[in-house]
Amino acid sequence: MTHAEGFDEVHILWISEGMSCDGDTVSVTAAGQPSIEDVVGGLIPGLPKVHLYNKVLSPTLGGEEFLAPFRAAASGELEPFIFVLEGSVPNEKINGDGFWSSFGNHPDTGEPLTLNWWLDRLAPKAWAVVAAGTCAAYGGIHAMAGNPTGCMGLADYLGWDFRSAGGLPIVNVPGCPVQPENFMETLVWVLQHAAGEAPPPPLDDKLRPQWLFGKTVHEGCDRAAYYEQADFAKDYNSPKCQVKVGCWGPVVNCDVPKRGWMGGVGGCPNVGGICIACTMPGFPDKFMPFMDAPPGGNLSSTLIRPYGAFIRRMRGITNATANVEPKWHHNREVLTSGYDPRWRP
User: Fold this and answer.
1) Is residue 268 annotated as involved in ligand binding?
2) Annotated binding-site residue? 275
3) Whole-structure pTM value
4) Subcellular location, in the record's words (predicted)?
5) HSE on the CB side for 312, CA within 13 Å?
6) Does residue 340 belong to any structural domain of this protein?
């Protein structure tokens, strides 16, 4: 159903049969601003009515009952729908005599239907296509060097110039797993656009939401001031900057230090974990081994050392003077604050 500006009702078809651990679905269940329950329950003003089909969150018993809306969408009998993929896309051209990943069986032959079969039929018909998590967005762990499946991200499979039936590029929301509110906030924007209440979500050249991934981990990190002062952690128990013990935060596009993980609490550097760059297209290959200092970390920390030491010393002096009360705070019989009570014409 549609009205003049957009849709009154939208289906969300979520397939997690990519090469995946289902961690993105599990993560999204922790979202609170908004929660998936609020969206499906119609509690967000301006959104169309939403029907969600996700195997982890489905009330069905599975099997054909669960597959019914996916089969209907593939045959053009269910629209409009937003297609969400979780997990990386294997290369079925190199599967030998078998298959890498399947989702249901063919009703006539009983043979497994590969993920790629579904992608070929659902993605072009979808009003919008969303990649949930780094595996779906860029291939992730399953696509690292040495993998036998030839895994790739959704844009690598469909093409980076792909446009959905609604005229949108693929919307990538990376993370391993995806940060709950990052995904739900993006999904709500797409739904608002579908309802005619908002413009398309702004994306960067890697198809990530700009407002979420436009800054680096370092720019939002509580530990960043220690870096400026060349005060680096030597182990993971320290509250100081972790760049010398393996953190890639200064070059990674992610908002987790500012946003937290659940209810604004947590997030890798916030709880003493290094950033391993899980939102980046080059993850994990370009950022391994994880516990080693990044190549640029040694150089930058060496260059900033004299500046940081000087700044730290100067701030220490200023801090000492700022921790002294003004001299006119006393209990004597004379006013020494400089206040002049004389009347002036």
Assistant:
1) no
2) yes
3) 0.89
4) Cell envelope
5) 14
6) no
- Asked if 146 and 193 sit in the same domain, the reply is yes
In a domain, 329, yes or no: no
Is 241 marked as a binding-site residue?
yes
| Domain containing residue 123 | 9-213
Whose tokens are 């018909």? That residue is 125
- Does the annotation list 21 as a binding residue? yes
Both 22 and 59 in a single domain? yes
CA distance 126 to 59: 23
For 149, how many CA atoms within 13 A lie in the half-sphere containing its CB?
A: 22
Q: How many domains does the chain have?
A: 2
275: domain CATH number is 4.10.480.10
* Residue 278 marked ligand-binding: yes
Q: In this predicted model, what pLDDT tens digit does every residue of 162-204 receive, in sequence order?
A: 999 999 999 999 999 999 999 999 999 999 999 999 999 999 9
Answer whether residue 313 is part of any domain: yes
Q: Residue 200 is which amino acid?
A: P
**Who's near 290: CB < 8 A, 6+ residues apart?**
246, 274, 276, 284
User: What secondary structure letter does DSSP report for 207?
Assistant: S
Paired with 82 in beta bridges are 12, 128
